[in-house]
Amino acid sequence: MKLKRVGVFSWGLVSCIWYVGLGLIVGSFITLLTLMGTAFSAGEETGLIGMFFGVGAIFFAPLFLSFFGFMGGIVTALIYNLFAKWTGGIEMEFDMESNSSE
User: Fold this and answer.
1) Most exposed residue of 16, 21, 27, 70, measured as fewest CB within 10 angstroms of its CB?
2) Domain contains 101
3) Which domain holds residue 12?
4) From CA 47, how far away is CA 36, in angstroms rounded?
5) Are 88 and 2 in contact (CB under 8 A)?
6) Tally of structural domains, the chain
7) Half-sphere exposure of 55 (CA within 13 A, CB side)
8) CB of 68 within 8 A of CB of 19?
9) Is residue 94 part of a domain?
10) How many CA atoms lie within 13 A of 45 on its CB side?
11) Has residue 96 been placed in a domain?
12) How many degrees, rounded to 5, is the angle at CA 49 between CA 48 and CA 50?
């Protein structure tokens, strides 16, 4: 079996969803680290601003990463489709197991 073409929009959508999950993880860590840094900081000027940017990371990281993941997925699919025309695609081997529990 050969994978000769990838749906550009569908690959972009899958990449978008993948990067939303990654953005939630990254945003959570940024939020946690920022809130810990704000809680343990000696200066009072970092309090409100640090919490704003820290908590904002959990919202903005998935938004930014999903957008760039979608665009990157589209570009990747277009490049793959171009190279697959030249090389014939990626050869894949699948093992079709029959369900013998019947």
Assistant:
1) 21
2) no
3) 2-89
4) 11
5) yes
6) 1
7) 6
8) yes
9) no
10) 0
11) no
12) 95
At residue 3, φ and ψ (nearest 5 deg) are: -90, 105
Q: What is the pLDDT of residues 47-89, one digit of tens each?
A: 666 667 777 888 888 999 999 999 999 999 999 999 999 998 8
Strand residue runs (E) in the chain: 2-3, 90-91
Structure tokens at 49: 């601003």
Residue 61 CB: number of other CB atoms within 10 A? 22
Distance CA 56, CA 64 (A): 12
Over the stretch 2-20, which tens digit does the pLDDT of each residue have? 788 889 999 999 999 999 9
Predicted TM-score (pTM) of this structure: 0.70
Residues belonging to the chain: 102
Q: In angstroms, what CA-CA distances link 45 with 30, 41, 51?
A: 19, 9, 11
Both tokens of 44, joined, read: 């009072």
pLDDT tens per residue across span 62-71? 999 999 999 9
